[in-house]
Each structure stands twice: as C-alpha cells, then as structure tokens.
Fold this sequence. Notes:
The structure holds 2 protein chains of 2 kinds.
Chain A: E1 9-10, E2 16-23, E3 26-39, E4 42-52, E5 59-60, H1 70-87, E6 92-95, H2 100-112, H3 114-117, E7 121-127, E8 130-133, E9 143-147
Parallel strand pairs in A: 4-6
Antiparallel strand pairs in A: 1-2, 2-3, 3-4, 4-5, 6-9, 7-8, 7-9
Chain B: E1 5-10, E2 15-21, E3 24-27, H1 37-53, H2 57-66
Antiparallel strand pairs in B: 1-2, 2-3
Amino acid sequence: MNLDHYKYATNETFLSFEFDSIGPKGNIRKIVRFSIENDFGITYFNLGFGDLDPLTGICDDLTVSNNKDRDKILATVANIVITFTARFPDIMVYAQGSTPARTRLYQMGIKTYWNEIEPVFHIFGFHDDGWQPFENNINYSAFFVLRKKS
Amino acid sequence: MYILKTQKMVSETKQLVKTESLGVTITNEVKDHGNDPYFVKKNKQAKAFIKKNGFPKELLLILKNRIPV
C-alpha cells in the first residue's frame, strides 16, 4: 500500500504497534493492539486503537486529538492491519470503535482505501442484525476482515 | 522482495535490538499493552458483541475450506 502513512514499530510478538501522529497538537503516540480471543471455539483477533497518555502510560480514545492528519492515521492503521495479517493470514480480525463515531471512522477508512484493501481482504460488516459483505453505502456497527489467499 | 536489516545497539543499561522487516521496525522498545485497562475493556465489549451476534458464516466457510483436516 503506497499511500502516505506514518512509520510504525512493533515488538517480537507482532501484537502491539506504535506510531506518532505529528501535527499542530504536537506528537501524539498512537497504539494499535491486536488481542487474541476465542468465542464458540473460533479464534480471532480484536483490533484496538487509542492514544497513549504520556502521563499515565495507559490508552484511551475518548479525547479528540485533532492533529489534522486523519487520513494519514487511517492509512497507517490500514498498513498495520496489512502487516499484521501477513504474519497471521488465517485468523479473522474484528474491529469496532468505542463509539458509533469511531466505528464510522473505520468505515470511512475502508471506503477511502477500498481499491487497496479489497484485493487483499474479505471484509464483512454488521448491519440489520446480520453480517454481510461490505458495501460502501451502508453504515455498519462492526467489522470482520480476513486476508485473502494470494 | 523485503530487505531484512538488523541493527544491534548496546547501551550501558540495556540491549536494544532493532530489525526492519516487511516495512515495520521490530524493537523491544514497543511495550505489550495487553494489560492496558482500555484494551481489556474493548476486548470485553468485543466478546459481548460476538457472543450476541456470532461470526460471518461466509468467513467461517472460507476458513474451513482453507485449513487442512
């Protein structure tokens, strides 16, 4: 994916990723965390995304940091998902924002980078009490993605 | 083609290993964050949603056909 994005780092587990958002509000450390879960005997990863509070050392996504770099952040998260699923190609990734507005942000990212994402992933959204293949004109409340076989 | 570049830096107090692979820097400076209360809470929310709504059946079928028995 060749879109403008921040450089990011991970550790040997490949489960936590960090990058810095740089803008008028200064440097804001962003965390993307993939947590392994299992329900009904099915293993999946839950994607979490938040800002690291430098004072407390813990994350949240309730503050609107507004560093004027939303698209670059979305592209960075998309790249992280691509990198992560290259390591774990046969496990689904679940994503849901902490608020409906955050979920719409994920949807915006999928829609914006659809041409880069669609060849790589199966994407499903939850709408009207059911999961369905992602469509651009429907508002979803959660997502599942699975890397396509190359 | 990905270029693997390894750089080892030894400081007085700790050893930092930095590797670049697949376009991402791999370093032990990145913390685990698994026990961060924020992510623990999000995982509980995810489990509650999935317990209620399940998984996309089509994705389960894709996975079933993918993994050899």
